[in-house]
What does this fold into?
Amino acid sequence: MKNGLEILKNMSILYAEDDATVREATTQTLSIFFKTVKAVDNGADALKMYRTTKFNMIMLDIRMPYINGLEVAKIIREKDQTTPIIINTSYQESEDLFKAIKLNIADYLIKPFAFDQFRLSLLEAIKRLEKNDLIISNIGENLNYDYLSKSIINATQTILLTKNELIILEELISHKGALVSYSRLEELLGLEFDLSKASIKNTILRLRKKIGKDKIINIQDLGYMLV
It folds into this structure.
C-alpha cells in the first residue's frame, strides 16, 4: 500500500469556506494532494453535496452562511462517525474548540495555518481512515474492498465494479451491520440512475455475484444490509 500523503492521490475531499480568497488558495493546495476537490462557499451547499456524493475527507470553516461548519459536522456525525473531518477557523474561541472535540474531528486548525500544520492534519486524517478500515476494508473471508483502486480483492484476483456498484457497496460498507434504506440509495445514485427498487435490486444481484450472495441481505420493503 502507498504510504503517507501519497494515499490521497486517489481520494476526494469536500471543502467549505465562505472567504473567496482563502477558498481559492486552499483549494489549489488541496489539489496538490487529492484527486478530487469539491469546494463550496456555505454550509447548506456542503451538506447538500455530502448527501449526494461520497467523500473520503471533509474540511469545514466554522463561520459560514446558512449553516456554520460545526453544525454541518454535527449533522454529518448523526449518521457518519468515520469520515475524517478537519475544522478550521480564524477565531480562537475555546467554546468552538470544545464543541469540535465532541464531534470526533481529525484536527482543528486556526487560520492562517502553516503548510506543515496542514500536512500534519492530513496525516492525522489518514490515520483515521486506516483506523476505521476506510483504505482497505474486509468484507468477507479473504475478501477486501480497496478504496484506493475502487475494486474488490480476493486471494486470486482483483474484481472491478461499475459506478453504481461502487456507490452502493461503499454505502453498505460504511454502515456494515445496519440498514441502508432504499431512499438513501436512491439519493446517492442520483438522477442518472433509474430510481426504481427493481433497478437497485439488479445492482445488488450483480454485487452478490462478486462478493457472495449471503453477504448482502434484503430487509423487505426497507433496504439492504451488509453482514
User: Anything to note?
Assistant: The mean pLDDT is 92. The chain has eight helices and twelve strands.
